[in-house]
Amino acid sequence: MFTYTILILLLPFLSFLLLGLFGNKLSHKLAGAIGTTSLGAVFLLSCYTAYEYFFAVGRGAEGVYEALVPYNITWLPLGTLHFDMGVLLDPISVMMLIVISTVSFMVHIYSFGYMHGERGFQRYYAFLSLFTMSMLGLVVATNIFQMYLFWELVGVSSYLLIGFYYTQKAAIAASKKAFIVTRFADMFFLVGILIFGYYTGSFSFSFVNELKLADGATAFVPVDAARAVAAGGFLLPTALTLMFIGGAGKSAMFPLHIWLPDAMEGPTPVSALIHAATMVVAGVYQVARLFPMWIEYAPNAMPIIVWVGVITAFYAAAVACAQSDIKRVLAFSTISQIAFMMVALGVSLPGHEGVLDNHTQLGFLAGNFHLFTHAMFKACLFLGAGCIIHAVHSNEMSEMGGLRKYMPITNATFLISCFAIAGIPFFSGFSSKDEIITACMNYSPVVGWIMTGIAAMTAFYMFRLYYGIFWGTENKEAHEHHTPHEAPWTMTFPLIFLSAITLGVGIYSTLGGFLGWGGSFGSFVSASGQDYTIHFDVTVASISTIVAILSICLATYIYKGEKQPVADKLQSAMPRLHQWAYKRFYMDEVYQFVTHRIIFAHISKPIAWFDRHVIDGFFNFLAWGTHALSFQIRGFQSGAIQRYAFVFFLGVLALLLIMIL
Amino acid sequence: MIQLNYMLIISAVMMFAGIFGFLTRRSTLAILLSIELMLNATDLNFAVFNRMLYPGGHEGYFFALFSIAITAAESAIAIAIMINVYRQLKDISVGKLEKMKF
């Protein structure tokens, strides 16, 4: 059973090798076809895995989906500790398989159109395959260490793809920034893993679950729980918090978010795949994966997750309201939405005596559900943005406006996704976001109301973006030479597919939530593994719907018209606020200040001086000394053969004397 | 019967004459002759020790023969080198051969 799951990792890896090694010898079409075909196969395999896992195998004896390990090899045994590699199937990893393979497959198809005729087309597909392989490896990891390995691989492939246009300075700088910032955060992740491994003697995800191998043996010897608890007083929460910092770096949480807006320098499909749908949710996935640990050993540290999430969500939403580059708006909206997921996981505290009650269930479920729905509609938004950029050759909103006439399909799918992210009923974002806000309300009304406010901001900036692109004044000057046109079918098909998922999931889950149908998301993914039927809290649902509709109306009022007097007036009324938001509250400048003025000037410079003068000086002294000495004694090397022979003869005599004496 | 010592004295004289020649002569050709002299002293020792100490054996004689063959090859090479040196420097006296230094 499930032996084929290894193919989900191997197929993209093989196509990476093939395209990476021989890509230059292949034509663009063939290279793209190889990558897309293997991803198509991965997509089908993932769907089949999900079908078999949820329906054919189904629930175990206690009504819980069991975690299965079809593959597990000990890669590096180190005494009692060992690093394993394998494939783990449980509800969240299977859900992630579906998300990643769907979005990646769509992006592969889309790139046919978007990257058509680009230099390095084969390289692009090779990197896409590498990324997909690493991301899939990350989600099926059987232990934290494997997760960390693939985590770094994901970071590398993100680096390679952001810097795809390596002739542009901005792209190189952005790729370096992304790599360094996430790597800095990963350092905390590694330290957390090491603390965890040292004190518990294991890298497994949970002391609670005993994972079952295909042949019925137990994969991991459960750690001595008493020892873990002894370490748990202080060390486990520390380790988990450090790991969370790693996750916050990857998921672009404030203040480690600075790399994500710049990462938009990469090709747009890459932004859709990596920086909207899959890699940036790795941090959320990590928290969800370690969730049993958090609620068991570190519930007191969970407010950190909540407040980091709340601050990030608010900050990013505020910045998104003022950006003019459409990809930047989407990037900040991604940051904000990921923060929603983090908050949802953070607010799911265990009930009394550590029992997993409905309260816990709801937050965990909502976080994962939002991850799923967000991946679909945000990928759709980014791919739509790609179509628009393809049509007008610019990222700036001022070059757009009035595009709805030229691009009907992009317009429709973009609108659907905007409704979803704004949280309008019957679109997928509604159900998941509503669950998050309900969970926050249960946790504390303050957090709940803040999140409602941020949801309103989300609706506002998304429709500001929508009207800015598709309505408003058409920029005739920019369109004079080149009339915008609808993208080819390879680019529109993924849009339609993803928005169809958004609509389908939205309609089913909205109706299901109001009418109490089973078989919705909660039946597959929940904290305890039990079937959980989503019921909407009617008050929360109606409040958030009204708030969303009001902000959409506000955005319509301000931005729909040909001229935007209200917006201009607001901007001139509060120039400083607008400027601050436009400059992202000067976070990059703060970093610049901290790194250049403080770290480089006062820490790195003395160290560099020490290196240059003391360490280099010592070795220069050695070299100089040797040189000077040899200069003194070089006279021995006279070149006169007979003198050499005489010295040799004297030496022989001396040796003889020694031997005789 | 000639005593072993006399033989050894002859070869020692040859040896030191060779060394003295090697260290003092200016001409490379003379130096080559001195080397031959030293080698002949050792060859003589091989033969003498074989004859006097191990009359039944042949190893010493064979060794002397090998040594002579190698000496011949060596002098061929040495003369070839000298010809090349002469082409370069128009002289084969050892005092001029001081290129191989620092």
Which key features would you list for this structure?
heterodimer, A: 661 residues, mainly alpha, 3 domains, 26 helices, 3 strands, 71% helix, 3% strand, globular, B: 102 residues, Helix Hairpins, 3 helices
What features would you describe in this structure?
- The complex is a heterodimer of chains A (661) and B (102).
- Chain A is mostly helical and 661 residues long.
- In chain A, 71% of the residues lie in helices and 3% in strands.
- Chain A has a three-stranded mixed β-sheet.
- In chain A, strand 1 and strand 2 form a beta hairpin.
- In chain A, helix 17 packs across helix 22 and helix 18 runs parallel beside helix 22.
- Chain A is globular and about 110 Å long.
- Chain A starts with a helix and ends with a helix.
- Chain B is mostly helical and 102 residues long.
- Chain B has a single domain (4-91), classed as Helix Hairpins.
- Chain B is built from three helices and no strands.
- In chain B, helix 1 packs antiparallel against helix 2.
- Chain B is elongated and about 50 Å long.
- Chain B starts with a helix and ends in a 13-residue tail after the last helix.
- The relative contact order of chain B is 0.13.
- At the A-B interface, helix 26 of A face helix 1 of B.
Task: Describe, in short, the structure shown.
With 661 residues, chain A is mainly alpha-helical. Chain A has 26 helices and three strands. Chain A has a three-stranded mixed sheet with strand order 2-1-3.
